[in-house]
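Example 3.2
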Amino acid sequence: MLQVQTITRTYKTFEDARNVAVRLAEAGIQLERIGLLGQQAGGDDNTAAAAGVGGAAGAATGLALGLGALTIPGVGPIIATGWFLSGAVTGALAGGVMGALVDAGVPANDAERHASEHALGRSVVSVRVEEPDIALATRIMDAAMPVEAGEDPQADLARVVS
């Protein structure tokens, strides 16, 4: 039996994360193995954004990513897809993003970092893959320039201003 590994990355924008999820699906990763958590920038109605993004992702890939909107206590409205929408994980999300990631097999220190980044408005993609797909998923996720640990969220703004 093949070992399943959870690979998780954080991206600056929901659109970046959505594009990674689409690329993973286009590469043949099963949709139910791809999880995405994020908030649509600049909008209060993530339900409408989820519908619009789901349509865009479906048009881009010929597949529907099955996006849904959730309201998490202490976090607010978020858009989720894939395994983040399963019953057990949705319950874990009520306890926070970190708990859901830890339950999925992400090491606690990494889960804490991704949860902190999500709290800053960034989006998280987490994919569960078996051995043959680990390198492919990692390559796709890293090519999209994920947020590095400890990266200052104001760094880009500072570079533009100076």
